[in-house]
Amino acid sequence: MKENSNSENSGSQKKNLPGNQIPKITIICSAPDLASQNIKTHLLSLKEWKVLELPENSGFSAARESQDGKFRLIDIEEMHIFQDGLDRKLENAGLPASLIIFASKHRSKEEISSLTVHCTGNPSGEARLGGCPKSLAVSSPAAMKSILMEMKRQVEQKGLKYDVTLEVTHHGPTELSVPSIYAEIGSTEVQWKDSEAGEAAAKAVLAVSLEKVPVALGFGGGHYAMRQTGLLLETEISFGHNFPKYQLEFVDEALIRQAIEKSKADFAYFDRKSMKSGDRKRISEVLEKLGLSVFKESEIREKYEY
Asked: HSE (CB half, 13 Å, CA atoms) of 273?
């Protein structure tokens, strides 16, 4: 991969890039996204950054690398959800990523003040918000856990009236071979521009850890996966892909295989009360066929308590 990404037409410029060809945790900030720009402002103030010279026609507006060499910060002019193939684009610019974190806004009709994380994918045959139908991105359960836990700490420390929650798998991009997650501020322009929320989200992103954790696939519950959030925050486990009750009709063997592979799942969890018995039975049979056990909440808490 390293050799392929060093294209001849931009090789001379790439030589000016510090840490060229070394994969880094890469934070993507979108110009038209107010929350993304809010988070970016705080990222820039929380760490020392050096500006990187981009190859001609890279497709990026700016690139920076933290002085400690851990992070890259990349500016794009488009919205995050339509960034299929971003990992290849970064590699072609001499800026390969080990993890992609999309700093983003979250929008909801309920207008709840929230800090959220989630992985991306389209369980159904529709892909109205980026990505491809019936396709899931590679998740990073360790990154989601560490960022969400730090969001919770920041909210408590600052006394912010923000919910901290894991969202289910939704929207694009899906076509990324590098693990990726969203770190978001919701849910209206008031929160997107809230400096305190921006700082909390930025500190959480910079606290990301890739240390391996036990990983569950989640089934059932609402869009804000409340029971999964509780287990993530209160035990040693994290979640990969999560499928809410309103998407379970689309969850078939092919999607579950994909979710296991792209989450590196160790077991599954059902929010049982929110699931129809038919869905529980059908999904249980597929998981059994694929060799993945389903753990109850009590079993997870007993086995993986802090």
From this structure: 3
Which of 33, 29, 41 is CA-nearest to residue 200? Answer: 41
Residues paired with residue 106 on neighbouring β-strands, in sequence order: 186
**Contact partners, residue 88, CB within 8 Å, separation at least 6:** none
Residue 94's nearest CA partner among 66, 62, 61, 53 is 53
| Cβ neighbour number for residue 123 with a 10 Å cutoff | 26
**pTM of structure:** 0.93
Task: State the distance between the two ends of the chain, measured CA to CA, in whole angstroms.
Answer: 39
* Among candidate residues 91, 36, 19, 106, the one with its CA nearest the CA of residue 60: 91
Query: Quick count: other Cβ atoms within 10 Å of Cβ 23?
Result: 18
Bridge partners for 29 per DSSP: 75, 103
Which residue is associated with the tokens 């040693």? 236
| Strand 62-66, strand 267-270: pairing | unpaired
pLDDT tens string 223-277: 999 999 999 999 999 999 999 999 999 999 999 999 999 999 999 999 999 999 9
